[in-house]
Amino acid sequence: MKSQLIKKLLRRSGYAILALAALLAIFILEENLRGRIMLARYKAELRAKGEKLVVPNTHMVSREENESDTELGAAGRELSLVRKESKFDVSFATRLRWAGSGRAIARCRETDLDVPWREPPVSKGGNPRFQNTRDAVWFADWDDLGERLKAASNALTRVRATLTNGNVFLPDWSEPSESLSLGYREVESVRTWLAAAGLYEIHEGKLDSAIEEISLLATLARVRRDERLMQGYTRIGTGETGLNLTWEAL
């Protein structure tokens, strides 16, 4: 008697589970069909407004470097040499100066760059700052940055032309960097000098020129690439540099 009752309960439970599964499948199917219909209507509305719904193919099948990569890489190496010859680190001038949580100082409005020299300048006037009673620290000013930008002007001109008219593609950086004309070091050097040039132009009141530098940084951050980790880090760094310069320009 008990066994028959248990069998009956199990049978009814099975029927109930099957019914719930069928209802769930019908609900999922109905939502899928409804979503497709709504999507088709939305696409029709966008096409009626003249919107283009074709996603451009940004995947580069070939990983071979082109002339734009070679030119940008050569300019990046030249800029790296100019940076090494500098007595202060130009990259520090392109970073935000934080004054507290969520607050930053507009570097372009300051009298100097607040970037220390690696060694005391021989022929530099002005008074040094003292970190303590013994150590004097000289800081680079806008004239110093202007001189460095003059030294980098030829390479920067080539960078601007390449990013404006070229077809740059970040190569496969899993290969040895010595075998590539455009490595992540060259890209980092290019973005540093573009940001330094933009910051100097903002300080000099040449806002239109600075906006062009910001646009070139955005172009460098959007170049076609393989979806690899190192390229991603480099593109994030380039985007952050461009945002910092945008903040200075506001």
What does this 3D model show about the protein?
- The chain is mostly helical and 250 residues long.
- The protein folds into two domains: 1-54; 67-111 and 142-249, no CATH class.
- The protein contains seven helices and eight strands; from the N terminus they run ααββββββααβααβα.
- The chain has helices at 2-48, 67-85, 142-151, 153-165, 184-203, 207-221, 229-249; strands at 97-100, 103-105, 112-116, 129-130, 136-137, 139-141, 169-170, 224-225.
- The protein has a two-stranded antiparallel sheet. It has a two-stranded antiparallel sheet with strand order 3-6.
- Strand 4 (129-130) and strand 5 form a beta hairpin.
- The longest helix is centred in the N-terminal third of the chain and has 47 residues, at 2-48.
Number of helices: 7
Mean pLDDT: 78
Major beta-sheet overview: 2 strands, antiparallel
The topology string of helices and strands comes to HHEEEEEEHHEHHEH
Radius of gyration: 29 Å
Percent of residues in beta strands: 5-15%
Number of domains: 2
Q: Portion of residues in helices?
A: 55-70%
Provide the low-confidence segments as ranges: 55-64, 130-134
Oligomer: single chain
Widest β-sheet, arrangement of strands: 1-2
Shape: elongated
Strand pairing plus helix content: what structural class?
Answer: mainly alpha
Distance between the termini: 85 Å
> What's the total number of strands?
8
In short, what is this structure?
The protein has two domains: about 1-55; about 65-110 and about 140-250, no CATH class.
